[in-house]
Specification:
52% helix; 7 strands; 2 domains; 4-stranded antiparallel beta sheet; Serine Threonine Protein Phosphatase 5, Tetratricopeptide repeat; 329 residues; 13% strand; Immunoglobulin-like; 3-stranded mixed beta sheet
Length: 329
C-alpha cells in the first residue's frame, strides 16, 4: 500500500481504532489543512441541507410558479432555492415521495401545501402568497433573511423577537439554534434545538440534526453521531445534512470508511447542489489511500465550482495527487 493521507483532527477526539496513518509531505499537508478548515467551518453552520424523506430513485421534475419573485422554497424543511424574477423555480431529480412544501418571502404569509410525486413525473405547482401582518411571523422571516445573508447577530435578535411574540414556535427555535451555532454559542444552540424538539413532541428531524451539529461543534462526536442517527431515522434516511454531519463525526472518531459511505449518500441525495461535498469526499478518500477515487471527487468539485475561493487550493492538491499516481511504484 502507498502512503496514507491524514489531516488534522480535533484534540478532544478519542484515539482511532485504525492503524496509525502516515503523514503527507509538508506542502500537501498544508494545502489539505486550509481546505479541511474551510470545509468544517462551512458544514458547521450550513442550513441548506436538510430533511427530505425517500429513497434515491429516478427523480421527478417539479416546476413551481409563484405570484412573487424571490420566494424561498422548502421541501420537508430543506431549502431548495428561490423563484426567479418571473416567479419560476425548477427542481429536478426529486425523489419519489410525499412532500410538505413551504414557500416564504418577507411580508407574506407562508404558503404550505402537501403533495406527492412519482418517479419520473413532471409536475407544475402554482404558489399564491398573501400578505401578512402577523408580527411573530414577520420577525421570524426577517431572522431567516438575515441568516441567509450570514448576519447572525441580527438574525438572533429577530428570532428572539418572534419567540417573545409566540412562545411555541419550533421553526424560529431551529433558526435561532443555527445562528447561535454560527456564533460559536454551542450550549445555547443546543438548548434551542432541544426546545424545538420538545415543542414538536420529539418528531423534529431538523431539530435533531441541528442539535447534533451543536454537539459536534463542541467536540462531542459520539453524542453527535447518536443524534444524527435519530434524525436519519425520522427522515427515513433521506437527509443530506444529517449524512454529512454524521460523516464528519465518524471521521473524527477514526471511522473514515463508514464516514465515506454516509458522505456518498449525502452527495446522492443532494444532486450536486453542494459541490463542497465532493471536496470533503476527496479528502476522506485520501485519508484511506484511495487516491484514484479521491482524484475523481476533487476533479468533480473543480468542474462544479471552478471559480470558488477554494478552487486554487483544490487545484494544487489535484496536481500533487496526479504526480503521486504517475510516479513509479
Amino acid at each position: 500500500m502507498g502512503r496514507e493521507y491524514s489531516y488534522p483532527r480535533n484534540p478532544l477526539v478519542r484515539p482511532s481504532r485504525h492503524p496509525q496513518r502516515r503523514s503527507l509531505p509538508t506542502s500537501l499537508r498544508s494545502v489539505k489543512r486550509v481546505i479541511v478548515s474551510a470545509l468544517v467551518s462551512w458544514l458547521l453552520i450550513v442550513g441548506l441541507l436538510a430533511q427530505t424523506p425517500a429513497q434515491v430513485k429516478p427523480g421527478a421534475r417539479l416546476t413551481l410558479i409563484t405570484n412573487k419573485p424571490d420566494v424561498s422554497i422548502y421541501l420537508n424543511g430543506a431549502f431548495r432555492g428561490k423563484s426567479d424574477q418571473r416567479g419560476t423555480l425548477l427542481i429536478e431529480r426529486l425523489p419519489a415521495s410525499r412532500y410538505r412544501l413551504r414557500a416564504r418571502t418577507v411580508g407574506f404569509k407562508d404558503y404550505r401545501f402537501e403533495f406527492r410525486v412519482a418517479a419520473g413525473e413532471a409536475r407544475r405547482l402554482h404558489v399564491h402568497l398573501l400578505p401578512t401582518r402577523d408580527r411573530a411571523e414577520l420577525a421570524y422571516q426577517r431572522g431567516e433573511q438575515w441568516r441567509e445573508e450570514k448576519k447572525y447577530e441580527e438574525s438572533v435578535a429577530e428570532y428572539e423577537a418572534a419567540l417573545r411574540l409566540r412562545r411555541t414556535f419550533p421553526e424560529a427555535r431551529v433558526g435561532l439554534a443555527r445562528s447561535l451555532l454560527a456564533l460559536n454559542k454551542h450550549e445555547e444552540s443546543q438548548q434551542q434545538a432541544e426546545q424545538a424538539i420538545h415543542e414538536r413532541r420529539g418528531q423534529e428531524p431538523e431539530g435533531y440534526t441541528v442539535l447534533a451539529n451543536a454537539l459536534r461543534g463542541a467536540g462531542l462526536y459520539g453524542e453527535a453521531a447518536e443524534q444524527y442517527h435519530r434524525a436519519l431515522r425520522q427522515a427515513k434516511n433521506f437527509s443530506p445534512e444529517a449524512h454529512t454531519g454524521l460523516a464528519l463525526s465518524l471521521d473524527e472518531m477514526g471511522e473514515t470508511e463508514e464516514a465515506i459511505e454516509h458522505l456518498r449518500q449525502a452527495i446522492a441525495q443532494d444532486g450536486d447542489g453542494e459541490p463542497i461535498l465532493y471536496n470533503l469526499l476527496g479528502n476522506m478518500l485520501l485519508a484511506v489511500d484511495k487516491k484514484r477515487e479521491a482524484l475523481k471527487a476533487l476533479e468533480k468539485y473543480l468542474a462544479l465550482a471552478p471559480d470558488s475561493d477554494l478552487a486554487p487550493a483544490i487545484q494544487s492538491l489535484v496536481e500533487q495527487v496526479r504526480e503521486e499516481l504517475a510516479a513509479p511504484p
